Amino acid sequence: MKLGARPAAESDLDLVVALARTATQELRLLRGGRIWAEVAARGEPLDAAFATEFVSTRHVVLVGTIDETVVGYSAAHDLALHSGAAISRITDLYVLPDARGVGVGEQLLLALESWARRMGHIGLDSLALPGDRNTKNFFESFGLVARAIEVHRAIEQ
Questions:
Q1: Dihedral over alpha carbons 101, 96, 67, 65 (to 10 degrees)
Q2: Could you tell me which residues come within 8 angstroms of residue 64 by beta carbon, excluding any fewer than 6 positions away?
Q3: Fold (CATH) for 3-141
Q4: Which of the 8 DSSP states describes residue 77?
Q5: Which of 47, 41, 43 is nearest to 10 (CA)?
Q6: In terms of C-beta distances under 8 Å and separation of at least 24 residues, what long-range contacts does 75-82 make, across chains too?
Q7: Torsions phi, psi of 111, nearest 5?
Q8: How far apart are alpha carbons 75 and 51 in whole angstroms?
Q9: In CA terms, which of 62, 102, 108, 117 is 20 to 30 Å from 68?
């Protein structure tokens, strides 16, 4: 079994969009996911947004593969800091459930880190929903730790 991560190509667009929709549906079911989906998840039309990111120098979209079959994707963009430095904001990292636990996510995160280094960024930043232990543990295994906690309370209507 050969694992990999490569830049997404135009021919990957439909699959990346489908994976993004699947990821959003999956995360929407988790604690905090409903509000996340309304506030921070990608909005439609996804195909137009990804097509722009595929060719942007400030964004990277990657696909994760097993034996050349795409089973996941990730995306990040540069985020300028007040100091003038920049970090890589990981907006998407998703692997199909049947392909998890074999190293595809690791390949994607390592490729994102490589992109960030080439861009001269000083760090990686992402988000994990509360209670999503797998995502939290995955990120922590790469040295990403919590730096803020967002809070929310619904108002009964």
A1: -100
A2: 3, 4, 5, 70, 71, 72, 73, 74, 95, 99, 104, 105, 107, 108
A3: Aminopeptidase (3.40.630)
A4: E
A5: 47
A6: 75/50, 76/112, 76/115, 76/116, 76/124, 77/53, 78/119, 78/121, 79/125, 81/122
A7: -70, -35
A8: 12
A9: 117
pTM summary value: 0.95
Residue 120 structure tokens: 């001269």
Six-digit token string for 146: 């919590």
Residues 10, 54 contacting (CB under 8 angstroms): yes
CA end-to-end span of the chain:
53
The single-letter code of the amino acid at 115 is: W
Give mean pLDDT in consecutive 10-residue pieces for the chain, a chain of 157 residues. 97 98 97 95 96 97 98 98 98 98 98 98 97 94 94 93
Structure tokens at 136: 């939290």
